[in-house]
Amino acid sequence: MAHTTSNPKIHEGRNLKRFRELLSLKQDALAFELGEDWNQQKISLLGQKEKIDSDVLEQVAGILKIPAEAIRNFDEEKAINIITNTYHDHSNDNSFNQGTFYLNPVEKIIQLHEEKITLYERMLKEKDEMMERLERLIGK
User: Distance between CA 61 and CA 24 in Å, rounded?
Assistant: First the structure.
């Protein structure tokens, strides 16, 4: 089952390596899943191939549980362009944007820390007041 790649920039081996790494699957583990004819070195060499045999690609895609077309058609340059053109920095914008709530996590951590300090100070004050009451009761 042969295939053709319409974009010569697409490197199936690198794409396979990226997906494998994204899924935290080591070369040895993939080799084990492929069978006894495979080892870590063969997986490394597979990652260097511009085009991977269709049968092998289908088998690897099945192990990774992703469509083989994802490996065949993933174009890093296009993906970066999409991310660059759609990502907006909303770190200082605590508002809703297209249904997503953007909150600056550092500000939230600082707020929580300040609330914790306030609560701790209040607890210490209540403890001191309780100690004074107990001392008065004991002193009588």
Answer: 14
| pLDDT band, very low/low/confident/very high, at 1 (cuts 50, 70, 90) | very low
Condensed to tens digits (0 to 9), the pLDDT of residues 73-94 reads 887 777 666 667 776 655 555 5
The tokens describing 49, both together, are 């191939």
Element housing 96 (H / E): strand 96-97
Neighbour tally for 19: CB within 10 Å: 17
Alpha-helix runs per DSSP H in the chain: 12-22, 27-34, 40-46, 54-64, 68-73, 76-86, 105-139
Give, in order, the Cα–Cα distances in Å from 126 to each of 112, 119, 121, 123.
Answer: 21, 11, 9, 5
What element of type H or E holds 100?
Answer: strand 100-101
Strand, coil or helix: what is 107? helix
Q: Is the pTM of this model over 0.70?
A: no
| The pair of three-digit structure tokens given for residue 23, joined into one six-digit string | 């899924």
